[in-house]
Here is the input.
Amino acid sequence: MYRSETKTALNKNILYFIRWTAISIVMGTVCGLIGTAFGYGVIYAQRLFKTHSFMLYLMPVAGVLIVLLHQMFHELGNRGTNLILESISSDERIPMATLPCIFISTILSQAVGASAGKEGAALQIGGCIGNYFGDVFHMDERDKKVMIMSGMSGCFGAIFGTPLAAAMFGIEVISIGVAYYAALVPCVFASFIGAQISGALGLHGESFLILHIPEFSLVPALYTVGLGLTCALLSVCFCILLHETQHLYKNKIGNVYVRILVAAGLSIALALIFGRDYCGAGFNLVEKAVDGESAYLGFLLKMIFTAVALGGGFKGGEIVPTLAVGSSFGCTFGLLTGFEPSLCAAAGMLATFVGVTNCPIATMFLGFELFGFEAMPYFAVAVAISFTLSGYYGLYSGQKFTYSKTKAEFINRKAH
Here is the structure.
């Protein structure tokens, strides 16, 4: 009897593996191709902004086009990444119109220098692809949720070039404390296939070189603890700023056209006062910070630029701006304390990222893929502390905390 049950279970596992491997190949290929097209669109838009200074002043025009686009597809109430997360944790439906809306509106936002990223858009595009193929393959609701997660991982891996982090992020971001390991094979396969396709087509991920990594010992560890503590506070402040700015826009300005025009005007004014370094996604700030260079209040300015743009209706995502905020703050911490600004920039970036996304495993993989393994002891300390002390705040209100961060108890609450 025992052998019969074992054989049956083994056969089910083999069938599961074969089925999801085939599906993942399709998902990874489609996500890789669409992700590559999106990535090149963003790159072209960013070059357009850097090459032509007048593009900044077209931000009101781009804003109106974004609103018109969402009205055309009846997507004015699109909740962005929250919609994708809620479709997995509940029976929320993902309209296919989300894909062209976020694809085009993100490229428009990048072309005029709005402080927004591209990975949040990648998650939404991937979620739409997964939902669509779930319907095509006539999957039940459980399998469709796995498809959505694998789509998120596939597009994230294709656009960002970090397949390990992408795979775990798709599994980990939905419900903190519970990882959807049933999606492990689809997410890993889709993310690696997506990244390989985008890489073969010339779209390569970012990587950075930390200038100096001292031997891990007591004094460096204490500095890292301090960095993790402050990054936890920073991530909470950033989440509150983003959410409250969005609420302020909606409460004070009911008309969506006026709202995005105000956001455009404020963004242009900020750029004229503080410079254009804080426009766009923010990888330029990450590069400077890892090189040991950052304005002392650069992290605060990037937070304000991002809250103004995204809160008013420009599209993209919060992830790359978060990396820019965290790396700039980390570099500032290093400059003020005299402890390895380049290393602090890398650790601060990861500590802030985990504070706003609540995905510690994906964050550790992200550090490995962006910076290599040598600094991992510093990353582990900073990430662990920031994750624990950032509480139940997060970028995505659709994210759930199934278990407490500080006790082995079930809490089932949404992010602030």
Q: What stands out?
A: Residues 2-200 form a domain with the Clc chloride channel fold (CATH 1.10.3080.10).
